[in-house]
Request: fold
Amino acid sequence: MHLSIAIPEVQVVDAPTLLKLIRMGPVCDAEADEKGAEYVAYFEDFPMSVGIVARMIEEAWDLRDVHSTLKGRLVVSRINFYTALRCYQESLSARGAKAYCLEQAEKVCADRGCPERPCLSHCRFICSRCVGLSRDQGSPPMASQLREVARRAEADWCPNLHITEVDV
Reply:
């Protein structure tokens, strides 16, 4: 999966650790357009490079005009993407990804007092939002709605995310 992170050169100049991280990416480049020069790190193997991507986002946290593109679409919410990224990273050290995700989703359900019906997802980023899904006749299939919620939560890229194609 392709991820790119672009940071204006002006901001990278005063952040030597960030520049070092950019250069640690599998591919990095300096590019320029009418908006100015920027450094771009490319990760064709994302999410295999989750550690360096997380560190790069942390180093660039307070910087403006940082742009990330995932599978050709702009990452709209850097905080949501980072939160999902850290969740995935934590799942890698758990005994099992599926059990980890289920545990995280159950915590959200317990905190929010979810209705007495089975959860449609075992992802904490979807679970916290699934109450608003439409079950009305003529609504898009539940799986499509869940994928859209995952996209808005910037978690649709996660290898642990499994949404069945069958309408629930």
